[in-house]
Amino acid sequence: MRTILFLSALLIGSVGYAQQMQDATNKDRRPYMTATYHIHSIKTRDYEQLRKRMLKANDRLKDKVMSSERFRTEQKKLYHLYGDTISQLFDKGRSRTWSRITQELERYQMLSEVKLTPRDKMLALHKLEGEWEKEREAMWKGSDTEARKQAKEADMIAGLNGEIRKLLGTDVGNWYIEYKTLDLMALMNMDKYKTSYKNGHTIAEIELKYRKKRADILKTKKKYAEKEVESMKNDEKKEQEIFASVPADVANRWKKVNAAVLDYTLQNRYGLNQLQTTKFKAEYNKYAIEEYKILNAKKLSPADRYARLDKLGDSFCRKVKPLFSTENYVKWRGWWKYDFERRMKRKGLI
Questions:
Q1: Furthest-apart CA pair in the chain: how many Å?
Q2: In what helix (H) or strand (E) does residue 316 lie, and over which residues does it extend?
Q3: CA distance 301 to 330
């Protein structure tokens, strides 16, 4: 669930899609490479050939079906291998300046060589994200409640995104944030749908595209029923595009998982078996009915609605607690509390 929150927060304020940004041309990149790595024009031309080979090898890797963990390991090996070759080209092996700028990560290489981000900003970004990650890990090891940690992480990510936009500029900052988001979603999709990085990335792009369309629908002043109809059509178009864009077996796995998201989440994230999942859903259905009644009780004040919903939620959590292991219940309960407070704020009850 931390990954879901991380993805949601990464997208705050982003516009457009990373893959729509046009690559810098070889002609544009050569003076950048000369200035960044202090190399002459012949070496920049030689590097372009190396770059093409590396990107093709990376592309072949993205076509293979494997776990996200193995993909990350193989990609790191690939970047390290080319880092050694490039260091020989640039500095005759004396130093690894290219590896320092790119950190042998695709997102940094693309930010550097597609957006031609200056060396000082690249190094500043490495420092910013490195310090932020240390702070994040320390926060999760701290003594705050699980719900409070969820809220803190959302605030931290929003803050990081803001600092990235200040450092890189709004347009490039948004491009970079979305590039990271799509990468993380692609890795999740590899495991979720048993597919390649490339298919996982394609699904991620489509999902983000239709998520934005859905948000636009909800922002309109149309009646609730009209919004529901448009949202259903939006979901249908998303499904059609996914089936047209990835192999049928992958699309069918996507459809199966997304037709039962709660089942997938409970079983894969919180360790419930099928019987426990069925019991959880039965209790949740009872909760949802009572929640609906309270939300639509016109005689109740916002404060009364919140108090009753809070009590109802606590009762629901007590009923499903025996279904979880102790550790997983703490994680799930923290997410429930965090999500409950968010929903109450959206409904204007707190």
A1: 78
A2: helix 302-320
A3: 31
**Is residue 35 over pLDDT 90?**
yes
Q: Which amino acid is at 54?
A: M
Mean pLDDT of 71-90: 96
**Gap between the Cα atoms of 171 and 175, Å rounded:** 6
- DSSP designation for 114: T
What are the structure tokens assigned to 161, written together? 């995104």
CA angle at 260 for the pair 258 and 263, rounded to the nearest 5°: 125
Residue 118 CA to residue 36 CA, distance in Å, equals 7
Structure tokens at 15: 């516009």
Residue 229, token pair as written in the block: 């109809």
CA dihedral of 189, 192, 195, 200, whole degrees rounded to 10: -10
What is the spatial distance between Cα 300 and Cα 342, in angstroms, rounded to a whole number? 20
Per the listing, tokens 């864009």 go with: 245
List the structure tokens of 280: 């959880």
Are 13 and 174 in contact, with CB atoms under 8 Å apart?
yes
As a residue count, the chain comes to: 350
Instruction: Give dist(CA 256, CA 193) in Å, integer.
Output: 9
Radius of gyration of the chain (CA): 24
How far is it, in rounded angstroms, from Cα 92 to Cα 274?
59
| Interatomic CA distance for residues 138 and 132, integer angstroms | 10
Three-class DSSP category at 65: strand
**10 Å Cβ neighbour count for 324?**
20
Task: Identify the pLDDT of residue 162.
Answer: 97
Are 295 and 106 a contacting pair, CB within 8 Å? no
- At 18, the pLDDT band (50, 70, 90 cuts) reads very low
- The amino acid present at 141, given as its one-letter code, is K
Summarize the confidence of residues 76-95 as an average pLDDT. Answer: 94
How far apart, in Å, do the first and last CA atoms of the chain sit?
Answer: 24
């459809």: which residue's tokens?
255
* Structure tokens, 80: 């390290």
Return the closest-CA partner of residue 48 out of 30, 22, 24, 28. 30
Residue type, 208: L
Which two tokens mark 217?
């629908």
Residue type at position 134: K
What pTM was computed for the model?
A: 0.87
Tokens, residue 250: 């992958």
Distance CA 190, CA 196 (A): 6
